[in-house]
Structures are given as structure tokens and as C-alpha cells.
Amino acid sequence: MLRFKNCQIKDLTYKSLSFAITSTPVPSPDPVKSLFSPTPVTFVDVKTDLGRTRCYWVREELKNNKAPLVLLHGWVAGTGCFYKNVAEMASDRAILMIDLPGFAQSERPQFPEEPEDEWIKSLKDTIAVQVPDDRTFWIGGHSFGGYLAARLAIEENFTAEGLILLDAWGIKEPEMTFEERVEKRLNWWQKILLKSYQRLGLKFGGMDIIRALPSSIGPKLIKAARKDLLATYGDEFLEYIFEINSAKPASGELAFSSLNAGFGYAKYPMGPRMLKNHKKIPKNIHFLYGGKSWLESSVGYQIIKELEENDPNFKCTVTVVDKASHHLQCTHPDQVNSVVNEILKSAEER
């Protein structure tokens, strides 16, 4: 079973902001080092208003050569979800990956009822510390990480060269009310369960079942019950997912539920906000979707069409990776790595 070690944190003042930060090679028990092997990785802990945020660097020595690629993972995941990408994706530049506050190896703070602004401020502060003042960067994210990456891209003075959205959650505006979706998609016992949760004022974190399993048998049960996942992701990755989602409290999951409008939709969908703020966002915007994902690629095409109508200087693409799932960076890493590399190369040549 993989176990985490706490690192020692030193207080430093950097870039006129006070943070607690430490940078050391990842110790051998760290699961991300093992998952990324043989690609070397180092970690940095940055303290922001949401506590300690764990960041990982691959090829950090190149961060002053070309614009680094910043990657944000999705819901109930962590930096380890990019384990099939770090060697070949953006291999000519540094990659900074951030464990979102409330998830993985970052601290699990108490979030306010509306957590989006706090998440964004924390991520902005973290990137400001990690990326040199005179460098721009690319930002990308998978699923919920894509939502946050898009939200960062519409911030004032956020100097991203481009935005890469990997099957991003929360982009499309819902076409029905929550109640209409409940009526259409849930069967009778699911409706009863939902009403019970609502009546009791409960929030479902999403990984409560995993958290209830003893660590001695939890991973074994998951591997036995989901041999399909074991075949796709491997033994070590499933242990990593179990370990990071066994931690308490489930503050990130519960904060996410405050942004979730249900059935894959966000309370504040990013598509309309990207269009409204088209003058702020970078001109390079690229959507990648899994061909078998539950998310609809049509929204990416629609956003790009409207962006290019507003400003012909936008350089946007939509790529649908055939037969890939929502977790396309894991199920079809070669294709995803190739697309991302082509995006970066094309931007450099313009």
C-alpha cells in the first residue's frame, strides 16, 4: 500500500507575497514519483489562503527556455492522473502540475459556501510563485481542472499564451432545469434517495464509499470488482486513487458539489463566460474530447465558432480522440500527447 509522507515547510517571502514553500526531490514513498518513473519529478509546497498546495515539476530546468505547460487535474483525482503523459507531452519544456486545494496531497481546507473565487485566487497565487515573472505559460486541465483553467483564463492580468481543455467539465449551459433532468434521468429509487439527501440537508462527496472501506481491503475490492479499470489504469494507479480519496475531510469534493448543478453541468457554466469575456482570454484555445466521453464535443465547436466570429485572430481547434473515454489522457495517451505537442509547435511557428 502506498503511503504519503509530510514534507518540511519553510517560511519564505517571494514576489511581494508571503508563502510557505519548500522544494525538494520527491522522497521514494511518494506515489507520484513512482507513477512517473522513469521521468524525474520534484515537488514544491506553496502556502496560500487555502493552505498548503502541492505542486509537481517535470523538466523544471527548462522553465526559462519555453513557456511552461501548467496542468490541473479533475475531480477526486490528482497530479498522478498525468502519469501516461509527462514523458512525451511537451517534452521540450517544463510542466507544472498542481494538486488542487482539497484534493490529493494538497491541504483540505474549509471552503466557503461559494468556493470558486477562493480556488481561483489560490491557483493564481501558486502559479505566480512558480512561474517566473517574465515568462508566459500555457494552461490546461482535465474535467473539473479544465473548468478551473478556463476560469483562470478570463481573469485580469492572467498571462497565459493558450488554453488546452481536456474533456473539460462544466462548459455547456444546461438545456433543462435540474428538476426536469431529475424527472427524465433518474428512476424511482434514485429519486427517493435524492429527496432524502435534500430533506436532511446532506451533501454527497462522491468518494464516501471508498472512504468507508478499510485500507487493508479497499484497493483489493476495487481491483476485483472493476477489472476493466485495472486493465486500463494499472495496479499502482488504482492504489494511488484509493489512497488520495481515503483522506479526510472530503473538503474538495464537498466544495465541488457547491459548483455542480447535477448531471455533468456546472452552476455557473464556463461556455457563456468565455464568450462574454472573449477580449480577456488567450487567442489560442483548444478543446480535446474523448470519442466515447459522456461530455458533448458540440459545445466546443459552438464556442470556437462564436469566438472566431467575434475576433478572427483566435486560433482554435477541436479534436475528438476516437474511442477515447472521458479520461482520454489515460486511455489514449499517445494520441493526446501528439495533439498537445502539435498545438504547442503550431503556436511557436506562427
UniProtKB/TrEMBL annotation:
InterPro entries: AB_hydrolase_1 (IPR000073), AB_hydrolase_fold (IPR029058). SUPFAM superfamilies: alpha/beta-Hydrolases. GO terms for molecular function: carboxylic ester hydrolase activity; lysophosphatidic acid acyltransferase activity. Gene3D superfamilies: alpha/beta hydrolase. Residues 68-194 form the AB hydrolase-1 domain. GO terms for biological process: lipid homeostasis; phosphatidic acid biosynthetic process. Pfam families: Abhydrolase_1. Belongs to the peptidase S33 family. ABHD4/ABHD5 subfamily. PANTHER family: PUMMELIG, ISOFORM A, RE40534P-RELATED. This is AB hydrolase-1 domain-containing protein.
